[in-house]
C-alpha cells in the first residue's frame, strides 16, 4: 500500500465501508475481514489512491464525435484515474452556470468516475471579458481555465486574477504567446530538417514571466497548466522561492517523449505545446523529482481520424492519454529517475491538495478511491483496446508496464480488467 501524501510504503490490507476507508494496515487480512465483505486478494500488487487527472477534454457538450463523458470516464477508469478535471474547451464553452450544471448532471448519469468541471476564465474563452467567476464557482467549477487559449491582454488577466483572488479561486492558464507560437513543432534543427515551422521556447517563457509578475501584483492563486522548458522552470523556481502562490503541471507526453519521436511526421505526436529536446525532457523529469513541478496530467485531447490523417502541418494538435498516463509514467520509475510514491503524489495527492479535494490519501476516513496495479506487468499498447472514442495515442505499439487491474470509486468497483 502506497500513500503518496505521506510518502509511505507498507504491506497490509484495506477495508472500505460506505464509500470511505474504514481501516487499513498490516494487521488487516482476509481472515479478519467483516462478515459479508467482498475480499480481493491483491497478491502483492500495489494499492494506491486513485489518480486525479487535472486536465482532460471530455467532449460534452458539443464535441460528442470526439469524446463523451461516458467514454472519457471509461478510459479514465481503465487507466486508474478516479477523478477527471474537465477543461472548459467545449461547445459552448463552460462559461455559464447552466453549462457547469449540465456537465455535473451528465457525469452523474453516465460517468464511471468523478468528473469535476473547470469553467472558462473569460467569456467564450475569447480572452476579452472576464466570466462570472463567483457564480460559476457556486455552480460547482473547481478552477478557471480557458484551455489551450492564452489570455493575451495583460489587463484582462490582471482583472481576472484579482476577481479570482476575492473568491479564493484557482486560475489555471496555458502559458504560450499565441503570436510567437505560430509553428507546429519545437523550433530547432530537427524542425528545419523536416521543413516545419517551429515554436520557440520563449513563446512559453514570455507568457509565464508576465503571469508570475501579475501573481505578485494581485496575490491570486495561479497554476501554469503545462510547462515544457528550462526557461519556465527557472522562473517558477524563483517565484516559489519568493513565496508566490504558484503551482505548475507537465504532461506525461513531455516527460516521456521528445521531438525525435515525431520521426517521419507522426501526427499523433503533434502536441501543444510541442515536444522539446531530450535535454529539456530530462530537466522536466528532474524538476518533477525535485518537487518543483507539482502535477502530472494526461492532457487528454481526442482527435478523430479526419483531423489527424493529414500532412503534419495541417493536422490538429492533441493526443489521448488518460488510459496510458500511469503506465507511461512508470517508465520513469523503472529507469530510476523518480520513486513510485513521488510519481503517484504528482498524479493524486498533489492535485487534490491544489484543488482542495479529499482524495489522494490512504488513511482512515478518506474517500475509498483506489487503484490496484502491478508496476512490473508488461503489455503492448493496442489502440483498438483503448476506450476513448478516438485512437490518437502517441504510445501506439509501445511496450509499457503497469496497467491497472482494479479501479474503485467511493468503494464501488468501476473497472476490473479481465484476467
UniProtKB/TrEMBL annotation:
<dbReference type="InterPro" id="IPR050138">
    <property type="entry name" value="DHOase/Allantoinase_Hydrolase"/>
</dbReference>
<feature type="domain" description="Amidohydrolase 3">
    <location>
        <begin position="335"/>
        <end position="415"/>
    </location>
</feature>
<feature type="domain" description="Dihydroorotase catalytic">
    <location>
        <begin position="44"/>
        <end position="229"/>
    </location>
</feature>
<protein>
    <submittedName>
        <fullName>Dihydroorotase</fullName>
    </submittedName>
</protein>
<keyword id="KW-0665">Pyrimidine biosynthesis</keyword>
<dbReference type="Pfam" id="PF07969">
    <property type="entry name" value="Amidohydro_3"/>
</dbReference>
<dbReference type="InterPro" id="IPR013108">
    <property type="entry name" value="Amidohydro_3"/>
</dbReference>
<keyword id="KW-0862">Zinc</keyword>
<dbReference type="InterPro" id="IPR011059">
    <property type="entry name" value="Metal-dep_hydrolase_composite"/>
</dbReference>
<dbReference type="InterPro" id="IPR024403">
    <property type="entry name" value="DHOase_cat"/>
</dbReference>
<dbReference type="Pfam" id="PF12890">
    <property type="entry name" value="DHOase"/>
</dbReference>
<dbReference type="InterPro" id="IPR032466">
    <property type="entry name" value="Metal_Hydrolase"/>
</dbReference>
<dbReference type="InterPro" id="IPR004722">
    <property type="entry name" value="DHOase"/>
</dbReference>
Amino acid at each position: 500500500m502506497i500513500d503518496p501524501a505521506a510518502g509511505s510504503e507498507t504491506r497490509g490490507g484495506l477495508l472500505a465501508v460506505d464509500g470511505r476507508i474504514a481501516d487499513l494496515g498490516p494487521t488487516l487480512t482476509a481472515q479478519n475481514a467483516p462478515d459479508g465483505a467482498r475480499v480481493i486478494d491483491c497478491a502483492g500488487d500495489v494499492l494506491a489512491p486513485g489518480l486525479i487527472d487535472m486536465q482532460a477534454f471530455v467532449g460534452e457538450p458539443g464535441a460528442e464525435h470526439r469524446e463523451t463523458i461516458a467514454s472519457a470516464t471509461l478510459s479514465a477508469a481503465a487507466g486508474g484515474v478516479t477523478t477527471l478535471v474537465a477543461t472548459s474547451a467545449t461547445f459552448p464553452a463552460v462559461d455559464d452556470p447552466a453549462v457547469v450544471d449540465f456537465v455535473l448532471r451528465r457525469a452523474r448519469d453516465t460517468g464511471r468516475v468523478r468528473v469535476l468541471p473547470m469553467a472558462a476564465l473569460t467569456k467564450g474563452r475569447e480572452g476579452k471579458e472576464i466570466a462570472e467567476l463567483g457564480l460559476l464557482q457556486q455552480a460547482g467549477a473547481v478552477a478557471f481555465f480557458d484551455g489551450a487559449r492564452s489570455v493575451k491582454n495583460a489587463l484582462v488577466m490582471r482583472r481576472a486574477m484579482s476577481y479570482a483572488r476575492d473568491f479564493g479561486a484557482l486560475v489555471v492558464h496555458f502559458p504560450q504567446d499565441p503570436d510567437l507560437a505560430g509553428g507546429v513543432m519545437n523550433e530547432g534543427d530537427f524542425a528545419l530538417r523536416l521543413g516545419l515551422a517551429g515554436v520557440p521556447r520563449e513563446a512559453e517563457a514570455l507568457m509565464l514571466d508576465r503571469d508570475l509578475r501579475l501573481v505578485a501584483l494581485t496575490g491570486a492563486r495561479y497554476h501554469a497548466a503545462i510547462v515544457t522548458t528550462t526557461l519556465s522552470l527557472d522562473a517558477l523556481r524563483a517565484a516559489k522561492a519568493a513565496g508566490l502562490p504558484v503551482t505548475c503541471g507537465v504532461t506525461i507526453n513531455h516527460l516521456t517523449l521528445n521531438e525525435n519521436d515525431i520521426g517521419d511526421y507522426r501526427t499523433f505526436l503533434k502536441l501543444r505545446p510541442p515536444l522539446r529536446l531530450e535535454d529539456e525532457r530530462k530537466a522536466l523529469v528532474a524538476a518533477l523529482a525535485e518537487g518543483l513541478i507539482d502535477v502530472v496530467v494526461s492532457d487528454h485531447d481526442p482527435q478523430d481520424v479526419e483531423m489527424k490523417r493529414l500532412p503534419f502541418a495541417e493536422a490538429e494538435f492533441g493526443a489521448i492519454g488518460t488510459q496510458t498516463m500511469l503506465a507511461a509514467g512508470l517508465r520513469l520509475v523503472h529507469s530510476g529517475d523518480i520513486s513510485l510514491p513521488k510519481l503517484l503524489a504528482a498524479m493524486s495527492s498533489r492535485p487534490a491538495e491544489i484543488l482542495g479535494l479529499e482524495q489522494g490519501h490512504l488513511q482512515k476516513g478518506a474517500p475509498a478511491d483506489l487503484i490496484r496495479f502491478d508496476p512490473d506487468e508488461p503489455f503492448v499498447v493496442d489502440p483498438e483496446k483503448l476506450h476513448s472514442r478516438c485512437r490518437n495515442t502517441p504510445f501506439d505499439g509501445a511496450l509499457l508496464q503497469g496497467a491497472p487491474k482494479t479501479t474503485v470509486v467511493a468503494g464501488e468497483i468501476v473497472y476490473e480488467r479481465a484476467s
